[in-house]
Amino acid sequence: MIKETFNPNPELAANAAIKNMDEYWALQNKALEDYEGFWKEYADEKIDWLAPYDQVLDESDAPFYKWFINGKLNVSNQCIDRHLADKADKTAILFEGDRGDVEQITYAQLSLRVNRMANLLRNEFGVGKGDRVVLYMPMIPEAAYAMLACARIGAIHSIVFGGFSTEALKDRIEDAEAKLVITADGAYRKGKPYMLKQVVDDALSQGGKSVEAVLVVKRNNEEINWIEGRDHDYNELITSQHAECPFELMDSEDPLFLLYTSGSTGKPKGVQHASAGYILWAQMTMEWVFDLKEDDVYWCTADIGWITGHTYIVYGPLAAGTTTLMFEGVPTYPDAGRAWKMVQDHKINQFYTAPTAIRVLHKMGEHEPEKYDLSSLKVLGTVGEPIDPPAWKWYYETVGNSKCAIVDTWWQTETGGHMISPLPGATPIRPGCATFALPGIIAEVIDPDGTSKKVGETGLLCITRPWPSMIRNIWGDPERYKKAYFGDAVKDGKPVYFSGDGAVVDEDGYITITGRVDDVINVSGHRMGTAEIEAAVKKDDSVAEVAVVGRPHEIKGESIFIYIVLKEGHINKDIKNHINALLAAEIGNIAKADHIIEVPGLPKTRSGKIMRRILRSIAKHEEITQDISTLEDPSIVKEIETKAREA
Ligand code: PRX
To answer: From its phi and psi, is residue 401 left (phi > 0), alpha (psi between -120 and 50) or beta?
Structure first.
């Protein structure tokens, strides 16, 4: 079958960091021949080492891999100080507020603000190396200052996405035993102020006893509750802080941050990233995948509460010394042209967003991009979920005017940075395809026993060699780390990292991601465990049993579909609103379900295992092809189907 393929724009390829597939294969072969030598070369070139490392990779305690042993660095130095000699007046962060207010923060100003914030944390709140600081912040520059200030003094930040509920925030604060919470009164969205501080107050009134203080940035100046002694006003305190804060000498392996994410079982996991390997790969992928040039202006629309915001709004762009746009609002407000107007106004060169956003922008304004001058664009990125070919085509043709590279970047919270992605100057791209593993990344599609899948066969997407920016641990739970990531597949007798995704390789070696093969669903690029949603639903007294599955959704990629069995004698007339209110409180609005139906029972095997595949088929209104004769009660399937059809 001939596949639709688009070759790189020759103008872009001529000056690209990696100019063609021969260069790509040369790099990848170099990594295969001398893995440690490959990484050493980049570590030596890219990182401002404050003391040299004495070993590249230590595999002796696998899967607890260590990189750049005994090396010393500081990530805020890597992102700020080392640029001051030649980039002091270059814009580091270009901020656009929801209401159109714009602020340019140069590297010199960023340095001053981060130093002051670091002094504030260190001197006023006694935050030091290894302490955990939770950030519950809107998309404002102070969020980036706080991240970098933590990095400067060696504190470990844990950002909780501003859409998470009180309960979710409390759980994350408690798991990390955070000493300080940094938040804001709120911010602006769709022209109106919204509030955040109350969620912090509620979380801390219910628990989070480790928290000694709350630092509050004033953004919208709306009235907020204030607890004397515990709450501190950032805007007031920051002005008197000293302009210089000597940075802490950090070990390569010292944790840089925690970021909680969902797995297929249990509560969210605190993914722990290390300093040197993470920042090295964040910087390298910025340079390769976005093909950055000195005067480029780069925009990633993610929220800093997700890994994309960490690596590709703050750490990667700043380590690479570029200008990164940070946007407080939503790309569809005041109208579907907002994002394109911003591209025009700021002459954006690289634009990075999620398939859901692309589908929304497409649906709301198919011809909207044509009204703006988007000629500055060179690279268009997508991340977080599979992109369907129609959305890809619109992005390529209408937004990119058929001359931009589309980089469909596959990666995860755990991988720290891009793993599989086209390279803008080299890779012939195909709609909906993440293409090839980046140089240095060994991605394989295998069976659990390590056998390579044949061309066209779906298998487990595994990374079969450790890589510098990989997850180091699950905070406080090394056993879960081993089991969750290294418990499903082996290669040559050794456990290898399994991503939870399925993938397929075609005859040309192109890798296409087929989606999660575990019980994780992806709604608008937000990753959620079905077990986590089920646990929240079970908190309702009337619920006897619950099963959650994903259902394909035109815009969101997937939506949540919930089957509920009520306890005997319970009637719940308004079950959908009732359960959705519970999910909003327990997890956040992102966990609300599109479908919630009450059923008389769930399809179970005689050993009591719920047959989710059947429930997934029913949610999709697909015909049931599975053998249901082994079910405890096969007649239940018809009853559930009838209910689902009515929903
Ligand atoms: O299923 C894959 C999907 O998002 C998951 C990772 O989610 P998270 O850790 O929240 O990180 C999202 C941002 C990196 C993956 O296991 N995913 C991510 N990128 C892609 C993708 N699925 C298909 N294509 C992608 N480009």
So the answer is: left
- Summarised one tens digit per residue, pLDDT across range 86-95 is 999 999 999 9
**Which residues face 409 on adjacent strands?**
383
> What pLDDT does residue 629 have?
86
Distance 434 CA to ligand 1 centre (A): 11
Give which of 383, 380, 310, 314 is closest to 350, Cα–Cα: 380
pTM for the model: 0.96
| pLDDT at 624 (0 to 100) | 86
pLDDT one-digit tens code per residue, 446-457: 999 999 999 999
Residue 601: band (very low, low, confident or very high) from pLDDT cuts 50, 70, 90: very high
Centre of ligand 1 from the C-alpha of residue 468, in Å: 19
Mean pLDDT of 528-536: 94
How far from 380 is each of 139, 301, 338, 352, 423, CA to CA, in Å?
A: 21, 12, 17, 6, 11
What percentage of the chain exceeds 90 in pLDDT?
93
CA of 586 to the centre of ligand 1 (A): 23
Where residue 547 falls (left for φ over 0; alpha for ψ -120 to 50; beta otherwise) is beta
Ligand 1 atom 23: residue of nearest CA: 386
The DSSP string of 355-399 is: HHHHHHHHHH-TTGGGGS--TT--EEEEESSPPPHHHHHHIIIII
| Pocket, ligand 1, Cβ cutoff 6 A | 261, 307-308, 383-386, 408-413, 434, 499-501, 513, 515-516, 522, 527
> Closest residue (by CA) to atom 15 of ligand 1?
412
pLDDT of residue 2: 67
Are the C-beta atoms of 259 and 175 separated by less than 8 Å? no
How many angstroms does the Cα of residue 529 sit away from the middle of ligand 1?
Answer: 14
To test the ligand 1 pocket, which listed residue (269, 395, 527, 530) has its Cβ within 8 A of the most ligand atoms?
527
Residues 171-199: tens digit of each pLDDT:
999 999 999 999 999 999 999 999 999 99
For residue 456, the CA-to-ligand 1 centroid distance in Å is 21
Residue ID of nearest Cα to ligand 1 atom 8:
412
Name the residue at shortest CA distance from atom 4 of ligand 1: 384
Rounded to the nearest whole angstrom, what is the distance from the C-alpha of residue 127 to the centroid of ligand 1? 33
pLDDT for 573: 79
Extended beta strands in 137-210, E state: 156-159, 180-184, 186-189, 192-195
Place of tokens 């009853």: 639
Find the DSSP H helices in 505-568. 530-538
334 preceded by cis ω (within 30°)? yes
The reported pLDDT for the residue numbered 266 is 79
Question: Of all atoms in ligand 1, which is nearest to the CA of residue 306?
Answer: 10
With bands split at pLDDT 50, 70 and 90, how would you rate the model's confidence at 1?
low
- Residue 408 Cα: closest atom of ligand 1: 26
- Residue 164 confidence (pLDDT) above 80: yes
Contacting residues for 530 by C-beta, under 8 A, at least 6 apart:
264, 519, 520, 521, 547, 548, 549, 550, 612
Q: With pLDDT > 70 as the criterion, what percentage of the chain qualifies?
A: 100
Looking from the CA of residue 526, the nearest atom of ligand 1 is: 10
CA-nearest residue for atom 11, ligand 1, is 412
Read off the pLDDT of each residue in 26-30 and give the average, rounded to a whole number.
98
Domains of the chain are 34-329 (3.40.50.12780), 443-516 (2.30.38.10), 522-646 (3.30.300.30)
| Rounded Cα distance, 249 and 261, in Å | 29
- Looking at residue 397, its amino acid is E
At residue 267, the pLDDT reads 87
Quote the CA–CA distance of 631 and 130 in Å, as a whole number: 51
